[in-house]
Task: inverse folding
């Protein structure tokens, strides 16, 4: 069954997530940008842990590093870690009701954001302080619609 | 997972400390280039749309304004040529090399958002246009920033308002030198290293001093908007507002000011004959030791 579903809809979703990571936003909303790439990868590694594993997340992280001009390996580490956590708990995450799932995903995203914060703090002059943690809140808001959209829109596309 | 974690930490170390990964980054940046263009496309289409839909009256108005401005600038340019010639002669008298004319290129800013807490952006010129790391960027108002990373088709640049960026400046009025450090806010920079008794006032224009070699000297950087002298503190709090339109422009000018070998060689020619007459004059006797030596070389 795993080999029979098509892969291009997911690749398209990942590409859209990459674009959303750098799409221009007004400065006021910019600090609220949700971590699209991490959320998308969490969804797909929860759905198909055999296909979208830590390796895929790591490579997408490298691409994201080049795209956003951060240090090579920073997002790779952050994404690989969040995907690893998802795959460890994917059986539980799948059967959670949506609100509980949202909380669990927010937990993973918090770790993702904090590691990014830590790496930035070690390598550059930090600016923004607690505002850097805002993406956690936007992830909380964005996860249910993202889940619904991926579930209803992309999953049907994958079937023959 | 463990192996990948080690690998990413190793990558970060190599990239941050050693800069060994330029080739990897270049290869990936070619992959990423279409994404950047795609993300930039909507805003480009929007600006194209407003341009092509703007009314005839507005275009006529703009063209009239531009023609007037051009006339003014041409008039100023005529005086500038005379001044440049005079400056060249005076510099020849002082026996110093004349300034080189700067080569410029217009680059477009791609509307790609990077880290919201860093003042960085991407421009559409890269290694294929001879852009180099550390190159200065200007706009119509003054210095905007410099190039931090060059990729084949795009480059990353940092604004002077980034908290990690410092610009060597001098006060245009009296030549007082200082350093303008970004404040993380695109409408101001700080001058943290001026003593309380420094001669600086609100309204002073800060121009680039050319020290450090990154920026060409003499371009406006910022205008002082606030000077706060606290008795008992060693340094004054000086805040300035950048003259360039940081974060508002779609276009920047890239300036090449690395000394080219050819022009400076030819410039040395007129300098030598110019240096001779003052050496013969009595008031110029002080720096004599250099004078005869130069003559001997010829």
Result:
């Amino acid at each position: 069954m795993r080999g029979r579903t098509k892969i291009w809809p997911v690749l398209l979703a990942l590409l859209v997530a990459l674009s959303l990571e750098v799409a221009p936003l007004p400065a006021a909303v910019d600090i609220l940008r949700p971590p699209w790439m991490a959320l998308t990868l969490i969804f797909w590694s929860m759905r198909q842990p055999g296909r979208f594993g830590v390796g895929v997340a790591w490579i997408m992280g490298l691409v994201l590093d080049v795209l956003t001009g951060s240090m090579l390996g920073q997002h790779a580490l952050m994404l690989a870690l969040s995907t690893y956590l998802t795959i460890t708990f994917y059986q539980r995450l799948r059967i959670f009701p949506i609100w509980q799932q949202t909380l669990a995903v927010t937990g993973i995203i918090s770790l993702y954001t904090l590691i990014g914060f830590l790496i930035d703090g070690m390598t550059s002059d930090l600016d923004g302080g607690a505002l850097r943690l805002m993406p956690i809140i936007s992830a909380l808001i964005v996860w249910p619609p993202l889940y619904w959209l991926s579930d209803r829109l992309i999953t049907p596309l994958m079937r023959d | 997972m463990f192996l990948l974690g080690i690998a990413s930490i190793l990558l970060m170390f190599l990239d941050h400390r050693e800069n060994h990964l330029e080739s990897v980054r270049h290869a990936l940046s070619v992959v990423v280039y279409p994404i950047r263009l795609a993300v930039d496309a909507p805003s480009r289409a929007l600006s194209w749309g407003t341009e092509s839909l703007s009314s005839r009256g507005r275009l006529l108005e703009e063209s009239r304004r531009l023609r007037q401005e051009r006339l003014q600038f041409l008039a100023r340019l005529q005086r500038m040529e005379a001044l440049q010639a005079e400056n060249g002669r005076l510099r020849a008298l002082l026996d110093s090399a004349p300034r080189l004319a700067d080569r410029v290129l217009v680059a477009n800013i791609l509307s790609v958002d990077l880290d919201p807490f860093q003042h960085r952006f991407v421009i559409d010129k890269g290694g294929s246009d001879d852009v180099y790391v550390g190159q200065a960027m200007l706009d119509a108002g003054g210095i905007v920033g410099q190039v931090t990373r060059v990729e084949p088709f795009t480059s990353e640049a940092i604004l002077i308002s980034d908290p990690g960026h410092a610009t060597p400046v001098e006060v245009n009025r009296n030549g007082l030198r200082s350093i303008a450090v970004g404040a993380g806010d695109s409408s101001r920079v700080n001058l943290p290293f001026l003593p309380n008794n420094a001669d600086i006032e609100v309204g002073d224009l800060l121009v680039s001093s050319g020290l450090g070699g990154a920026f060409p000297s003499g371009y406006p950087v910022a205008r002082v908007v606030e000077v706060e002298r606290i008795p008992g503190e060693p340094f004054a709090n000086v805040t300035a507002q950048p003259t360039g339109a940081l974060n508002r422009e779609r276009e920047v000018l890239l300036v090449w000011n690395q000394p080219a070998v050819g022009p400076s060689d030819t410039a040395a020619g007129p300098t030598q004959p110019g240096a001779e007459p003052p050496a013969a004059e009595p008031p110029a006797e002080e720096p004599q030791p250099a004078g005869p030596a130069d003559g001997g070389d010829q």
Remarks:
- The helical segments of chain A are 8-22, 27-30, 36-47, 54-68, 74-88, 90-95, 98-123, 134-158.
- The mean pLDDT of chain A is 86.
- Chain A touches chain B through 40 residues (CB under 8 Å).
- DSSP finds eight helices and no strands in chain A.
